[in-house]
Amino acid sequence: MPKTLQEIKDKTLKDNPNLRSQDIEYVLAERLSYTPSQYQMHKDDELNKEQEKQANLDMKKLRRGVSPQYILGYSWFYGYKILVKRGVLIPRFETEELVKWALDSVKDGDKILDLGTGSGAITVALAKKAQEKGMADLKFYASDITDSALLESEENFLVHNIDVTTRKANVLVGLEKFDIIVSNPPYIKTSEKDLMDENVLKNEPEEALFGGEDGLDFYRKFAKQVRDHLNSGGEFFLEFGFDEKQDLAKLFAKELPDFEIEFRDDMAQKPRMVHGKWEK
Question: Which processes are annotated in GO (biological process) (predicted)?
Answer without folding.
Answer: methylation
